[in-house]
Write a structure and sequence with these properties.
It is built from 12 helices and 17 strands. The protein is an alpha/beta fold and 345 residues long. It folds into 2 domains: 266 residues, Rossmann fold, CATH 3.40.50; 59 residues, 2-Layer Sandwich (Alpha-Beta Plaits), CATH 3.30.70.20.
Amino acid sequence: MRQIVLNKNIIFKKCTSSQNSKIEALRSVIREMRVPFGRGDTVGIKLHWVERGNKNYLPPIYAKEIVAWLKSMGIKPFVFDTTVLYSGGRRDASQSIITARQHKYSEEYLDCPVKIGDGADGKEVVDLSAGYKHFTNVQVGAIIHQADGFVIFSHFKGHMETGFGASIKNISMGFASRAQKQRMHADAKPSLKKKKCIMCGECVRVCPVSAASMPEDEYPIYDLGKCVGCAQCIAMCHEMALKIIWDTDVEIFQEKLIETAAAVWRIIQKKSIVINALLNIVSDCDCLPGNHKVISPDKGFIGSYHPVSADAAAVEIVGSGIIDKTHRDIPWPRQFSYAREIGFE
């Protein structure tokens, strides 16, 4: 068996498929972590309570464990996420809170407040200096300045645009305002493969900006000028009749993701820790409804002090070949090489 050698600042605890083993693995990780916050501090747990209809999300019992751990140290935790570009159960704050409750990410179950990071109307945002080639500044939820520290708690899984999603994406897309999400996604547009299209109209129904239309008895039409690049139509097509066309090199999306995460991390790095859950490792993102294909057995939990290190360790443990096989032609390694280039490591 191949020996896995992890960065010395990585804490990794294996688990079996049993619930007790998973809980103990998480407890073992957090017991060993050095925390940059103390009694009386308010700490935000950045997580993803997923889209309605998703069957592969992390159950809230793990977030509950982190909440209890923080409270045992006299810390005041809360959990949060931000609103999204696409239609569904998280497009605005009120619907997102309902979705969170449906998945038991509720104040009653977690025993802590549940917040929306960009406010009730999605307009509580701030601009951060970035100074990179794609973004001179990035816009994120004002929550970034409303806590003494953060726990970045992420579910490792596949992703159709980034190969995989974990802590880098949880920080980048997860803290970003809707406008910043659109800036990152803007280069991804749909292209129809007519031989596979059954003219069901699902792409028209899910488009949040009415960029897709379908004349009677004709194939759908996409107004690429109106399209915001959220890729929901592509993800929701049951026939796989849509593919992504990129206005620019596909690597640029990876770079934009890194630049946004780096700008956020510059602000929160001295007061944050990172935990990756390598459980329910499926082919696609929690932002999509459905029951997605399992691509790896449960591995355990990773604790780290940097998102790039945490995600690199997760890829090493799960296996880069699995990501390549699941999402062919996605240059996901560019996330790591670009992070090194801009000093985000």
